[in-house]
Write a structure and sequence with these properties.
Strand order of the largest sheet: 14-15-16-17-18-20-21-25
Strand content: over 45%
Helix content: 10-25%
Distance between the termini: 66 Å
CATH architecture of the largest domain: Beta Barrel
Shape: flat
Largest sheet: 8 strands, antiparallel, barrel
Structural class: alpha+beta
CATH class of the largest domain: Mainly Beta
Length: 487
């Protein structure tokens, strides 16, 4: 009988030891919403405006999904029951007591610094040409008297400008820690709009304020999460709908902070960054994300820090083809790290025409890109490039002539990661067609318009042999790009 009991006690102690040593979640991991109470820093004479701005802040704090906003009616009830009088500036003692009664961790204080509405005159049109040079003295006197009378009437009463109201609103928001009474953060809100009636102008101003408020509230409470599982190119982590996370939100993965003792002082050093992830699926309190870029191994237990904005990606490309074409181009990518992305491009180069002349060109364009795969520090994609270019050269009479052309291409791209923030991209482009307009130049007619500007006319370029130079860039091209990722 002793042997079974001994075995039982042995395994019981092992399980107990394992349970007692199970690691706890770090204190800096964001698991719950922050209870927040919103108060005016001081009584503003415009109670209706103050109420509207407080309502906007409460609405946006709720929409961000990271705050539990204490209902305004609850706050008013606490003020009444505890006989608080918010007259003048709100001191830290009042804030702490109100927050304590409301079970809040943070207090947001709104201070409306400036609010004003006034009618402003619309932009005056230039009427210097209205008066005829040969007008009589009598006509000039009549015009002057009438104009001065109208301007005097307008200046006496700004209500005459009620259809062009300028509204300005400036406020300061301070975040107070209820427990310590110390200010943790603050930001300014500035909005203005000119146009329409007083109500219309105010609505537009408050709409700007609302958008600005949401962005800044999100920035002051960025999520810190932790990797709980690594599954190939995907990871699972804490935080989900409970904290307002959305698909597409991006995080940077990093090792845990390191503790170091230096000269008797214990300090926390940031861990090494590991990679970037993008949320693909949202759960109630957990999320699944795709590893979109990695420069060190990602493991369970590492931290995930929310990025304020998606990374920006830019390319600079170089193309050279058998001394027939040279080009340097740049790209700024939109909606980076998605299956479908686009870019805004610029192009500068030279191309040989059918008369063996190198014609310079510049222009803009776009790429429509589809991502195929990412593996082992490489990624592949296909794209359609659509440029709009202007080429220039001289014709046979010495005129500087220009011509529009476009040479769309189908591209195959291979990006190789060479560092945390840099790639080298190899591209094979097949130009399958081209559009080339006529060569033209602008001739000065020697006349001026009413504003004194020269009048010009479009003329065709002169080719003595009757054959215009053609741009036919169809074919296969190879290019190399240097890519920069900023986050």
């Amino acid at each position: 009988m002793k042997t079974p009991i001994f075995v039982f006690l042995f395994f019981f102690n092992i399980f107990k030891a394992q349970d007692s040593t199970y690691p706890e979640i770090d204190d800096d991991i964001t698991l719950n919403k922050k209870p927040l109470v919103i108060l005016p820093a001081k009584n503003h004479p415009n109670k209706d405006l103050e109420k509207k701005v407080l309502s906007i802040i409460a609405e946006q704090a709720t929409a961000v999904g990271r705050f539990d906003v204490i209902d305004r009616n609850t706050v008013n009830q606490i003020l009444d029951e505890q006989k608080f009088q918010l007259s003048g500036m709100v001191d830290q003692t009042q804030i702490s007591k109100i927050g304590e009664f409301a079970s809040a961790e943070l207090a947001l204080l709104l201070d409306i610094i400036h609010f004003g509405q006034k009618g402003v005159p619309p932009k005056k049109e230039d009427d210097t040409n209205d008066e005829e040079e040969d007008g009589t003295l009598f006509k000039w006197i009549v015009k002057t008297v009438v104009k001065e009378t109208i301007e005097n009437i307008k200046s006496k009463d700004t209500l005459a400008l009620e259809n062009n109201i300028q509204t300005e609103l400036k406020a300061k928001v301070t975040i107070i820690n209820i427990e310590t009474g110390i200010s943790e953060n603050s930001f300014s809100l500035n909005a203005s709009f000119t146009g329409g009636s007083r109500d219309f102008s105010l609505i537009k101003t408050l709409k700007q304020l609302s958008q600005d408020t949401r962005i800044k509230l999100k920035e002051i409470y960025m999520i810190t999460s932790e990797v709980v599982e690594v599954d190939g190119a995907y990871i699972n982590m804490f935080s989900g709908e409970n904290l307002g996370l959305k698909k597409g939100t991006m995080f940077e993965i990093a090792s845990k902070n390191r503790l170091k003792t230096y000269k008797g002082k214990r300090i926390s050093l940031p861990g090494k960054t590991r990679g970037l992830i993008k949320i693909t699926d949202i759960g109630l309190d957990g999320s699944r994300a795709k590893i979109v870029r990695k420069w060190r191994k990602i493991k369970i237990g590492q931290k995930a820090y929310e990025l304020k904005a998606s990374p920006t990606i830019t390319d600079i490309s170089f193309l050279s083809s058998n001394k027939k074409r040279y080009e340097i181009s740049g790209k700024a990518w939109i909606n980076s790290y998605s299956d479908f992305t686009g870019s805004i491009n610029y192009h500068l180069g030279s191309i040989m025409d059918s008369k063996n002349n190198m014609d310079a060109y510049l222009g803009f364009g776009t790429d429509l890109n589809y991502h195929l795969f990412s593996q082992y520090g490489t990624s592949s994609s296909v794209s359609l490039t659509i440029p709009a270019l202007l080429a220039w050269r001289g014709d046979d009479d010495g005129h500087n002539v220009i011509s529009f052309f476009s040479d769309p291409s189908l591209d195959a791209n291979l990006a190789i990661q060479i560092s945390k923030t840099r790639d080298i991209v190899f591209t094979a482009s097949y130009i399958f067609t081209s559009i080339h307009g006529p060569w033209q130049w602008r001739r000065d007619t020697g006349s001026n318009d009413e504003d004194g500007n020269k009048i010009t006319e479009t003329e065709w370029a002169v080719w003595k042999d009757g054959i215009k130079p053609a741009l036919k860039p169809e074919g296969l091209y190879l290019s190399i790009s240097l890519r920069r990722i900023r986050f």
